[in-house]
Amino acid sequence: MSEEAFNATAWCLEDATAGYEVQSVENGLCSAFAYTDVTNAGLDVFYLLFAAAMVFFMQAGFAMLCAGSVRQKNVKNIMLKNILDACGGALGFWSVGFAFAYGGATADKKGFIGSSGFFLADFTSGGDLIGWFFQFAFAATAATIVAGTVAERCKFEAYLCYSLMLTGFVYPVIVYSIWSSSGFLTAFNNDPVFGSGMHDFAGSGVVHMTGGITALIAAKVLGPRIGRFHDADGNLLPEPHSFPPHSVALQVLGTFILWFGWYGFNPGSTLGISGEGVPDVAALCAVTTTIAAASGSVSAMFTDMLLSRRSTGETMYDITMCMNGALSGLVGITAGCSVVEPWAAFVIGIVAGWTYIFWSALLVKLKIDDAVDAIPVHFGNGIWGCIAVGLFAEPTRTINAFGEHGHYGWFYSWGNGSADAHLLAAQVCGVLWIIGWVTVIMLPYFLILNAIGLFRVDALEEEVGLDISHHKGAAYDMSGPSADVQEKFEISRSQRKIEVPKENTDEAA
Asked: 89 and 126 in contact (C-beta within 8 Å)?
């Protein structure tokens, strides 16, 4: 390359890095570096497509985790439900869910629910369409949380009913209130509540709390699995009976897939990558997500080990605590991944591990049966994640992610000699709103399903397993060869044996 060409290329790169639109340089060297609105729009669409695909891949993670956690006789059932989560979420969010979540929202008004864009009518641009795809992946995640909790005893018809209700109506209303520009709790309105609005960057509350509280209500109404807390005569067991997972390998695989998918979930919630400062926010999200997951895993496992050593005198390391601790840290950081410092992500992860242990023990005490411990992970740590933003939101990072509004984490305000808790108050209101809305809608819904006999399978069907009773046979063929075949093989093998002559044996000795 000539010196002139080298200098021209360097000048072009310098201006492009500074954000200027460079159209041409002598000899056409700079055409590859011309950043235009069209280029930026295409870059944002690709970024969101990639992030949404990662979030959608989390469905495979949920499927593996749930399949590994249930007993062998129910694997087909839970896998089918995870597949239909994606199908039902797509159809429900395409037809009415997205319209309820974002339709007609503007920053100069407030409302309760969207009212336009049903069936994606008039959606033609790449930005609009990819926005639906990204949000659909989130909606499907909220529904999948419930499937694991009620596994091994929920009717297939009931599952379809509540999945469509959740993705088509309940979840979209929460999205509208917190993420659309017209929501009464949103941070994106011209007049946000408490001057800041609720900050839930990627969905600790909107996604995980919604799915978690729905799972809690469903588990309470549905009741525990046979033999979990009571014996065959209905007497309370001295200790709750645990149903061992049929495949720890699938559980670990599912956990790693979910962790991987979270890098689309959290950094992808920037909804683009080309804007000024947006790459910095996305990078911070990736770092805080990693730290919170790691600290949550270590916190839960070692805390459980210490508690077990204190009560039994034995040192045992529980892989379930390790996996669910990591998922708890991921849920806990999701709301604040863009506004907290890395050290705060470490603290959030540590507390998330403790939160998981507390909620898991509380469910057992209340005789609520969660087949995969999704309620402690998603509901308990969804609450913690929302509250953590009100405590740890760092001013500069909050401005980068949400804009300047003057209200930040309470610990920072307190450190500056102020008692400003506006952001913390908005977070608490958001938590209470999600719990209240989901309970008001889903509690009567589940009670009606239960009353008309559509919620729980027959006791005999539960005992034999849902795979055989509902899905044409077991997931695994464990029958092996018949006794006759084995006998024939033994006879054949005995006939092929080579006898060593006795004299040769004696000589060898």
From this structure: no
CA distance 117 to 206: 21
d(Cα 456, Cα 40) in Å, to the nearest integer?
Answer: 51
CA nearest 151: which of 224, 236, 237? 224
Cα end-to-end span (Å), the chain: 84
Q: Say if residues 444 and 215 touch (Cβ distance below 8 Å).
A: no
Q: How does pLDDT run across 174-216, given as a tens digit for each residue? A: 999 999 999 999 999 999 999 999 999 999 999 999 999 999 9
| Side chain identity, residue 246 | H
Residue with tokens 């061992």: 244
Q: Which of these, 48, 243, 58, lies nearest to 127 by C-alpha position?
A: 48
| CA–CA separation, 48 and 69 (whole Å) | 32
Q: What is the pTM of this model?
A: 0.89
Angle subtended at Cα 329 by Cα 179 and Cα 379, rounded to the nearest 5 degrees? 60
- Whether 24 has a pLDDT exceeding 70, the answer reads no
Q: How far apart are CA 46 and CA 126, in angstroms?
A: 10
Q: Residue holding tokens 């007049």?
A: 191
Beta bridge partners of 183: 111
pLDDT band (50, 70, 90) for residue 19: very low
